[in-house]
Specification:
Length: about 140
């Protein structure tokens, strides 16, 4: 078998993964694209190991390390994506920019704040109860 076949396949896999990383907005699809890129590298490592007829099979050993690192990376990455999805309700990479820490001097404009009438609405008896108790306390000698 010629070395060109697995090399061309690895290039196609890597380019597909690179396109997925650069063009996708969903974090899970970005992680899948990174896995495609790592698999293209693994394919190259094994192909060159076979082509060079290495007695130690160092390319295949390095591939096993790469697979182990990729498994750890995908586990941690999915945990982070799930945590972000639970907090934000979306796994869009573009919306993750909102989670970055901002300086205390920077404030969001009033248009970006979420106003909800339920938070500010207080029933009449609860709103007047503390004021009524304070007036009674002032009135008693």
């Amino acid at each position: 078998m010629h070395l060109a076949y697995p090399a061309v396949l690895a290039v196609l896999l890597f380019c597909t993964g690179l396109y997925g990383v650069l063009a996708r907005r969903n974090a899970i699809l970005v992680l899948m694209s990174v896995e495609l890129m790592l698999n293209a590298v693994n394919l190259n490592l094994v192909a060159f190991d076979v082509w060079l007829r290495d007695a130690l099979h160092s390319g295949q050993a390095l591939t096993l390390f790469t697979i182990a690192i990729a498994a750890a990376e995908i586990g941690i990455g999915l945990a982070i994506v799930l945590a972000v999805y639970r907090n934000r309700g979306s796994s869009d990479v573009d919306r993750l920019r909102d989670t970055a820490e901002t300086d205390e001097a920077e404030e969001l404009p009033d248009d970006d704040r979420d106003t909800d009438d339920r938070d500010t609405e207080v029933p009449e008896d609860q709103a007047t109860a503390p004021a009524g108790k304070a007036k009674k306390a002032e009135a008693t000698p």
